[in-house]
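Collaborator request, handled under Task 6.
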Amino acid sequence: MTTLVELAAEKESADVTDWAARLGWVVGLLLFIALVYWLMREGWKWRGTLQGDLPELPAAPDEPGPAKLELTGRYHGSTTAGQWLDRIVAHGLGTRSRVELTLTDAGLDVVRPGAADFFVPAAQLREARLDKGIAGKVLAEGGLLIVTWEHGGKLIDSGFRSDRAAEQAQWVEAINSMINTTSTTEGTAR
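Structure tokens returned to the collaborator:
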């Protein structure tokens, strides 16, 4: 009869880790993740190619006039107007960034450190409103300042979030008032 000590001494412990199999799985997973990111990047570039008919973004005039309002915050992107999930990526409009907005009589100056700046002439502004979302960003109701403008015959919604959310309502009033004044002036000139 064998004792318990002899039984314990005879057994060998199993290998704790099969390093070759584990390394294979890790490498396979890393390659899969790299493939997914590469496909996402190619999709982004393809979307930019499809939107290549959008003309270059206008630059701010040398003398835009005195600032009516100024805002610092985040630029969350631009979409086709009324289609909050149809992101526009051409000319850097899809790049999120910090933003400094300045509203003047000439229009809306959008300065984005690390991304392409652009200017929306007053005649191209169509509407401003508070909304809850734009492609890739959803906030509480009224959390985003959405400015609708026309560029190259296409209506575009651009989403901004102020560092001080309370001032966004003031921006909506000022832009819509400016649009109404511009359209009234154009209507009487004809």
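The cover message to the collaborator said: "The first helix runs from residue 4 to 10. The beta strands are 69-80, 87-88, 97-103, 107-111, 118-121, 125-131, 133-134, 137-138, 144-151, 154-162. Please let us know whether this matches your experimental observations."
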